[in-house]
UniProtKB/TrEMBL annotation:
UniProt enzyme class: transferase
Family from the record: Belongs to the DHHC palmitoyltransferase family.
Species whose genome carries this gene: Parascaris univalens
Cross-referenced Pfam families: DHHC
Record-level Gene Ontology MF annotations: protein-cysteine S-palmitoyltransferase activity
Localization terms from the record: Membrane
Entry keywords, A to Z: Acyltransferase, Membrane, Transferase, Transmembrane, Transmembrane helix
Protein's name according to its UniProt entry: Palmitoyltransferase
Comment block on domains: The DHHC domain is required for palmitoyltransferase activity.
Transmembrane annotation, as ranges: 45-69, 81-102, 221-240, 252-277
Length: 308
């Protein structure tokens, strides 16, 4: 009996540390900033602002590409006015759509769980009393068979009292309860470690836009990827003409700086067109065709046979 208890204790600790190891690098940063800000509000505020570093980097690269394409490619290297006008109209249309979709991805409120799913204090206390806990972290997967049955009964009774219906359960056939937020997770809802809250139809937390991609802004996020890839492809194809013409004319000294600037921008665009933008776009188109999220593909949901 002692050996079995020790083995189970080791399994609990291993699972706890495994979950920490599996956490993404940016989730660890978000958690650190969130905890630091609680203790040091002033300096923590600046750390919180610094979480937008990848978004700012992205905007700087877009502005650099804009300057090169408009000021160098169209105003200095291209000579046909009709061609320049057509190129600029298409380019600016794509830019407007890119910034619109990016802005909508950022400003659209994250899909939060409605208040009706939050457990009352009595229900939450009952669940915590019969759930194993290790260093303040509740581990329902380590519950005994008796504890599991009690948890199922408590959760089912609470859901019935609120008129809530679910089809998704955990591997023990329990309704999925979040001990961090104190709520029963609606179907397709998951806890975002970066935000520290449960999110409806959670896909992933994107550090490039410093925002959760979820039910409300998923469409805008995919559109942002789409318009980014189209804009990059347009810039590469239309700028390549200038580079090819430079080598055909063999005027090695004249316009060398402009060609180097254009070549660097083309290489930068080509890299981001492949990863992360291109691969992400293909991946999310596939997910949309399967009606899945990133989280669901990584861990397929368990469906209850009988709908409550």
């Amino acid at each position: 009996v002692v050996v079995s208890v020790l083995l189970k204790s080791n399994e609990v600790e291993d699972r706890f540390y495994l979950n920490k190891q599996q956490m993404s690098w940016y989730s660890k940063i978000y958690i650190f900033v969130r905890e630091y800000r609680k203790v040091h509000p002033f300096s923590g505020f600046f750390l919180h602002i610094a979480l937008n570093a990848l978004l700012l980097t992205q905007l700087i690269m877009i502005m650099y590409t804009y300057f090169i394409y408009v000021c160098v490619v169209n105003f200095q290297l291209l000579t046909n006015n009709i061609q320049v006008t057509a190129y600029l109209v298409i380019f600016h249309f794509l830019c407007v759509m890119l910034f619109w979709s990016l802005g909508q991805s950022i400003i659209t409120p994250t899909a939060r769980v409605p208040p009706v799913y939050f457990a009352d204090e009595a229900t939450d206390t009952k669940l915590r009393e019969i759930t194993p806990c290790n260093n303040g972290r509740y581990l329902p997967d380590s519950s005994t068979a008796e504890q599991t049955q009690k948890q199922i009964k408590i959760l089912d009774e609470f859901a019935e009292s609120r008129g809530l219906k679910f089809v998704e359960v955990d591997q023990c056939n329990r309704l999925r309860y979040c001990y961090l937020c104190g709520l029963i997770k609606p179907d397709r809802t998951h806890h975002c470690m970066s935000c520290g809250a449960c999110v409806v139809k959670f896909d992933h937390h994107c550090p490039w836009i410093n925002k959760c991609v979820s039910h409300n802004n998923y469409k805008f996020f995919v559109l942002y990827l789409l318009y980014s890839c189209i804009l990059i492809a347009w810039c590469i194809l239309t700028s390549a003409e200038c580079v090819i013409r430079y080598f055909l004319q063999q005027q090695w000294i004249g316009g060398l700086l402009n060609i180097l600037l254009v070549a660097f921008a083309v290489i930068l665009c080509a890299i981001f067109a492949y990863y992360p933008l291109g691969q992400l776009l293909i991946y999310h188109i596939r997910l949309a065709s399967l009606n899945e999220t990133t989280c669901e593909q990584a861990k397929p949901p368990n469906i209850r046979c009988v709908v409550m």
